[in-house]
Amino acid sequence: MIETSPADAPPPLSGSIIGADGLARPAWASVDPMLRDYYDTEWGVPVRDEHGLFERISLEAFQSGLSWAIILRKRPGFRAAFADFDPERVAAFDEDDVVRLLNDEKIVRNRLKIRATITNARATIALRDSGGLVDFVWSFQPDATPAPLTQSDVPTRSEASVALSKALKKVGFVFVGPTTMFALMEAIGIIDTHLVDSHRRGSSGVWS
């Protein structure tokens, strides 16, 4: 048998798919036009405003146990139902609003997740007295980010996401488990889990 040295070994298979436009994307963003547009224009772009961050936390909570495509397709309905994710307006929601939302077919009708969104809006407002939600969440940016070659290399949680989850729970947030918070950190640019050969790798400006 002929032995090969590491230098002779074939390179690892790419996890990206080259689209008709010549751009490399992960499989999950390579077929559905909606997901492709989301990947190209929004996923991994830094979010540093309270309003935008509250929306992302809310949508990630609703996504728990579901596919992101479902949430993304219902995003306009979510925005209409939850007052465009204005924390102050959502914090004022009462039981009548919960009933209204449970009857709204344009969103995911889950009582626990609906209540969680209201709870998290109130916690977001409370955080304003100690620096605000944005600084709080971004303070958990790690010193390094993953460099995945394939989708299977992308972790689903990290020490930073565990720490963020615990910290948010201490200040009153719910539905913010470590896996959900890892997905949030990916989506808002705190970490960069774009595949190494993706055309979006390093595009956030946070990680070179």
Automatic annotation (TrEMBL):
One of its GO terms (molecular function) is metal ion binding. Coiled coil: none annotated. Keywords: Metal-binding, Zinc. InterPro entries: Adenine_glyco, DNA-3mA_glycosylase, DNA_glycosylase. Gene3D superfamilies: Hypothetical protein, domain 2. GO terms for biological process: base-excision repair. Zn(2+) binds at H194. Signal peptide: none annotated. It comes from the Bacteria. This is DNA-3-methyladenine glycosylase I. It comes from Cryobacterium suzukii.
